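Regression test attached.
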Amino acid sequence: MKSVVKGFGMNRKFVRKMALAAAGFALAAGGLAGTAYAQRDPAYEAARASGKVGEKMDGYLGIVGASTPELQRMVNDINIKRRAVYAQKAQTANATLEEYALTAGCIAIARTEPGEKYQAPDGSWKTRTSAPPERDSRCPA
Amino acid sequence: MTSAELTARRAAARTLAMQGNATARKRAIRSLPLVVASLLTLAGCISVEAPDKPIVIELNINIRQEVIYRLAEDAGNTIEENADIF
C-alpha cells in the first residue's frame, strides 16, 4: 500500500499515518470479529423491542406493563444471571454488589436503543428516543 | 520579748468595699465586664452550632459517584462480555 501511494507523489509522513490507521482499523475489526459473544435470546430481544421489559436504574431488568408468568420467569432468569456476574465482578473490582450493579445500570440505560424502555431517576418508565436518556446524576458521561 | 498573736496581721481596710459596706449599685457596676464577657461567650457558642446531617449526605453522594466512575469502564466491558443477558 505504501509504495502504491508513494507512486502518486504523496507526502511521506501522510503515507505512514495512513498505513498506521489502516493497520489499526484492521486490528480493531479483527478484535471485534474475534470476540463473538453470545447474543440475546429471541424472546428477550422481542420483549425489549416491544417495551414489555426495560432497564432499571439498579442494573436489573424490569417488567414495564402487565406481567405474565412467562415474562416474569424470563426476567427473573436474566436478573439472577446478572446478579451472579455483578457479584463476581464487584469482588474483583473491590466494590459492593450494589455499587457495581448501579454502575452497570447507568451504562445499560445509556446503551438502550430507540423504542426500548428504561427507568428514569424519578422511577417512571420512559421510552428511549434518539436523545440521551434521563439518568441518575451520578452516572458517568 | 515577743508579743503573742493568734492570727497573722491584716492590712487595714481602706475602702468601703473592703469593709463590706459596698452598695448594690457599685457591685453591679463592678461585675459588668464579667457579665458582658459571659454573654459574648454564649453568643459564640450559638454561632458554632451547625447541623451535621446534610454534610454527611453530600459526602456519601460524592463517594458513590467516585466509585461509579471508577467502575464504569469495567462495567461496560462486563455488559459486552455478557451480551446475552444485557
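Expected vs. actual: identical. Chain B has a mean pLDDT of 76.
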